[in-house]
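Final report, closing paragraph on structural work. Over the funding period we assembled a curated collection of sequence-structure pairs, and we close with a single example.
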Amino acid sequence: MDFWKAIFGLVKRRLIGPPLAALALAAATLVFFLMPTTYVSTASMVLTTPATGGTLPSDPTKPLGLTNPLLQFSDGLRVTAGILILSMNAPEVAAELGVLPNGTTEITINDGRTNPNLLGISTNGPFVYVEVQSRSAATAQDVVVKAKQRVRRELTNRQQALKAPRSTFISIVDVVPSSTPEAKLSGKLTAAGGTLFLVFLVGIGIAYAMTQMRQGGRSADPARPSEGGDGPKGGPKEGASGAAAFSDAGAGADPLTGYPRMDTREAAEGPFHDDPEPLVVVIENEPFAHRDDDAGDTIVFMRASGRDDHEK
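Its predicted structure, as stored:
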């Protein structure tokens, strides 16, 4: 929970959130315009039987009746469409059409399952769907035209190889002719969106890491002062100077009014361990030379900041 509070806090900062969002938006815009545009051209075809059907009359003087080809779709046509699709997906055919491996042009030939408009009816009809993607609009349209011609030639050659009667040849007609190449922006939008998210995420991560490093440096314990070194500015000196002051007081000098300040970590073990302020001990008594056994010593504990006083 604290992590997300810190993240939202960084986003709301005027010097972090808005500049980082502007940087991510600029990077995404740059990627969108630098990424090449892909053009798509498609064509849809369907196989049909002749009006006289797929058989010849045994008596030429008694011709068979004519039929509507649109009413004669059968499993045989779907099988033929499958044969054409398999043959058109061979690597040799792709090279003949000008589609090279790892090139900038891609071709897809199937029964229409990749076309949303044919997805619901592709299983019921002998469709042949051609789709070409290229960075050049002219290349995309040219490859589609070549693919349609190659499909028609493949169909004719196979029927001739099987010595089918010419009057029973299956034909292939256009359902949707070759479309004008259209720019496909989905790839560019995907790349721009990914760049926007990545730049913003990395920027927030760097800002969060720097914030945590600064907080860690501030919360670290201060270095212990060296022995015999000077204490806080204006305070009594530690070490030998403190011992000399104590001995002078015992010899009849003025009452001891100061004591070297204790280190913060050493003071943490005393009764005021919950306060980081150094503890100052002041002892008020008569000179040791004239001390009476019944005389009481007064020890005053007080904070340097003056917030807590305790007398004993």
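The first helix runs from residue 2 to 12. The beta strands are 38-48, 106-110, 127-134, 171-176, 182-184, 279-284, 298-303, 309-311. We thank the funder for supporting this effort.
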